[in-house]
Amino acid sequence: MAVAKTAVVGAGVMGAGIAAHIANAGVPVLLLDIVPKGATNRNAIAEGAIERLLKNDPAALMHKRNAGLIEAGNIEDDLGRLAEADWIVEAVLEDVAIKQSLYRRIEGVRKPGSAVSSNTSTIPLAVLTAGLPASFARDFLITHFFNPPRYMRLLEIVAGPTTRPETTAAIAAFADVALGKGVVTCKDTPGFIANRIGAFWMQCAVAEALDAGLTVEEADAVMGRPIGVPKTGIFALMDLVGLDLQPHVDRSLAGALPKDDAYHGVRRDFPLMTKLIAEGYTGRKGKGGFYRLALTEGARVKEAIDLGTGDYRPAQRPRLDSVEAAKGGLRALVEHPDKGGRYAWRVLSRTLGYAAALVPQIADDVASVDRAMRLGFNWKYGPFELIDRLEAKWFAERLAAEGATVPPLLGRAAAAGGFYRIEGGRRQYLTTGGDYADLRRPPGVLLLSDIKLAAPPVARNGSASLWDIGDGIACLEFHSKMNALDSDSLTMVRQAVDIVGKRFKGLVIHNEADNFSVGANIGLALFAANVALWPMIEDLVTQGQTAYKALKYAPFPVVGAPAGLALGGGCEVLLHCTAVQAHAETYMGLVETGVGLVPAWGGCKELLARWTADRGRPGGPMPPVARSFETISMAKIARSAAEAKELLLLRPEDGVTMNRERLLADAKAVALRLAAGYTAPTPPEFRLPGPTARVALQLAVDGFVATGKATAHDRTVSLALAEVLSGGDTDVVDTLSEDAVLAGERRAFMRLVRHPATLARVEHMLETGKPLRN
C-alpha cells in the first residue's frame, strides 16, 4: 500500500500539526473539521488552522509553500472525499463516543484497504474499536504523534489483534522514510510507552521536590543535564508543555491503570498547580508558570515561584555540590549526600524501577522503551541505559537494601552484567528471556556509532576522525565541542583528501552530534587577538581556505551530510562539497557578521558563484552580488533544508532526507553514484561590478543605519563585505579568479578582526551566546 494522499480529521493543534508535517513530506492532505455554528464559511475552522500554521513559531511548515498541499474542508460537505485518501488520521477530542461516531461515518465512505488511525494518547485501541465492523478493525491502528509533530521524532504505533500486518507495515514505513519518524511499536496499554513512564517521572519529580524542600531552580538543575535530560529539568519542562495538560494526562492514566499500579503511589494533588492554571499561569503559552518573565524598572526579569508560598521571586542560580559532582558520572550524583543527590536518587530509583517492571507489558524489549524515551522526552539515555550507567548490579542491590521491590528483569540484568553489551563489534540488549540479542537496524539505516564499535578509525586527531563506512566510501567526522572547527579539524580535512584519494572512491562529511558544526572556534581567535597573534589568525584563515579548496577539487566526490546547525565555517564546508544530502532539519547560514566578521573560508566566493550560475535569476553582475550581500550581511539562517535551497546555501539538486537515521546511508549512496567516472569541477571565473556596486550597497546600508535598523559597526562590517563581493577595485570587464576573491575575503577578515567593536562582539557571543548590537 502506497501513501499518495492523506486526510486528517480534526484541525486542532495536533491535527493541524500532523497535516503540516505530512505536507512537509510533499504529500497532499485534506484537513477536515466541523462546520461552526452560524458561520458563513463552512470551512472556517480548517482554514483558520492553516492560517495559524503559516504564523507558528517554531514553524510547523518547513517552507510556507507547503501550506499549498493542505486543503481545507468540513466533515459535513467533504466527508465523501475521504475516499481519495490512502491514510486517514483522526485527531478529534479524546472522547470514545465522538471517535466511534466518526469512525462509523468514515467506514461508510473510505476506499477499501485504506488505513485509518487515531492520534489518541490515552484510549486503548480495544476500546476504540469495540463494536465496530471487522472490516474497519482490520485497517485500524493507533499512530501517536508527539507535539509538535514536525520536531518530535517519536511515533508510537499500536496495532490491534486483527489489524492487517500490511497496513501496519505500510504506515510504519511511510512514517519512517517520508515523515522522518522514529517508529516504536507499543502494546495496547494505557499511555503506551513514553507517556506511561514520562508521566510517572514527572509526578515523582514534582512530589519529591516538594517533599525535599527544593526550589524549582534546584530541582531543574538536578533533574536536567546531570541525568541526561534537557536543561529544562522538570518544572521548566512543565512550563514548556503546558501546566493545563498535566491534570488531563494524570486523570486519564489514573483512570485506566489497574489499582495496584505504582503510578497511584506517586500521583497526588498539587494545589499550587491548580491555582496557577485557574489564574491563567499555564506555562510559556500563558502568563507564565513555575517561571515567568516580569517587567521590573523597564527590564524583563526572570522570576521563579516559591513552592512554599506560591509567590514569585527573582530566579536564582542554584548551587548544589551534587550537581558539580555529577561531572564524575551518574553514580556520583545519586551517591552524593546533599539534598540534590538524595533527590536524584529518590526520583531515579523509583522511575527506573517502574520502567523495569513494565517490560514486557508495554513493549517487547528494553531497546524499544529506551528509544521511546529518547525520542519522546528528549532524554539522552533511556531508562535501561541509565541503569547501566549506574551499574545494574549496584542499582538492584541498593533497591533491595532499601526494601524496594527489584523487578525480575532488573534481577536478570544484574546477574548478566547489564541490559546492554558489545559483542563482536555489535551492540546487544538483554531480552526478557535472559539472553542477549543483536540490536538490528532497519534496511537503509547506517549509523556511525555502530561503525565505531566494529573497527578503529582510519585516522584521528583531537577534533576529527576518518572512518571506513564500507563499499569504498570514507566518512569524515568532526567531534570537537559543538563541532567548532579549529586547526586540528582543518588538518584532518587535508589528511582525509590525501587518504581518500589513495584508498577510497569517495568521502562523506557527517557526524551524529546534535549539530553538524557551529563554525570556527571563535574562542581561539579571541585569545590570539587579545595577545596580538595576527599571523596565527591569518594562518588559520589561509589554512581553512586551502583545506576547503582541496575538498572542492578532490579527484573524488565529497558529499556533505549535515543535520542541525551548520553555521559559519560549518556552512562553508558544505558549500565546497560536490553534493549535499541534508537532513530536513538542517539550519544553515553564514553568520559571521553577527560577530563583526565576514566569511573567509570561501563562503563569500561560493555563494557568489552559485547566484552567478543560477540561470533563473535576472542577468548582469549586480543581482548575484546583491543576493549574496543580503544573505550574508543579515546573517540569514535557513530554518530547514527547504529554506536553505531558497537561499542557494543548498543547490536545487541537493538531496533531503527526512529521517536522520537514514542520512548517512543516503549520503553514501550519493557518493557511490557520483564516483563512477567522476571529474573535479572547473574553477569559476568572476566578473564583478567593483566600486559602483560597493557605492550602491553602501547607500542601502546607510539607510538602515539612519532608521536605526543597523548599528555603526554593522555599517563597518557591511562595507567590508561589500568590498569582497563587489570585487574590490575591479571592473566588470575584468575577470577575477577564485583565488582573487579568496584574497579579498582574507583581507577583509584580517581588517575586521583587529577592530575593537568586533572583539567586543566575539567576547559577548562567547559569554552569553547572543549577538551584541554595537
Chain-wise SSE layout:
Elements lengths: L5 E4 L3 H12 L4 E5 L10 H10 L16 E5 L12 E4 L5 H12 L7 E4 L6 H5 L4 H4 L2 E6 L8 E6 L5 H13 L4 E4 L8 H19 L3 H7 L12 H7 L3 H12 L6 H4 L4 H8 L12 E6 L2 E7 L6 E3 L6 H5 L4 H5 L4 H19 L8 H12 L5 H8 L1 H10 L6 H9 L3 E4 L2 E5 L5 E3 L9 H7 L4 E2 L3 E5 L4 E6 L8 H17 L2 E4 L12 H9 L3 H19 L5 E3 L3 E4 L1 H7 L3 E5 L2 E4 L13 H11 L8 H12 L7 H6 L8 E3 L5 H13 L9 E2 L4 H16 L5 H15 L9 E2 H16 L2 H13 L6
Parallel strand pairs: 1-2, 1-4, 2-3, 4-5, 5-6, 7-8, 17-18, 18-19, 19-21, 20-22, 21-23
Antiparallel strand pairs: 6-7, 9-10, 10-11, 12-13, 13-14, 15-16, 16-17, 24-25
Helix pairs in contact: 1-2, 7-15, 7-16, 15-17, 18-19, 21-23, 22-32, 23-31, 25-26, 26-30, 29-30, 30-31
Describe the overall structure.
The protein has 774 residues and is α/β, with parallel strands linked by helices. The protein folds into four domains: 6-185, Rossmann fold; 194-372, N-(1-d-carboxylethyl)-l-norvaline Dehydrogenase, domain 2 (Orthogonal Bundle), CATH 1.10.1040.50; 448-591 and 637-681, 2-enoyl-CoA Hydratase, Chain A, domain 1; 600-633 and 682-774, no CATH class. Helices cover 44% and strands 14% of the residues.
Task: Briefly characterize the structure.
It is built from 32 helices and 25 strands. The protein is of the alpha/beta class and 774 residues long.
List keywords for this structure.
774 residues, alpha/beta, Rossmann fold, N-(1-d-carboxylethyl)-l-norvaline Dehydrogenase, domain 2, eight-stranded mixed β-sheet, seven-stranded mixed β-sheet, 32 helices, 44% helix, globular
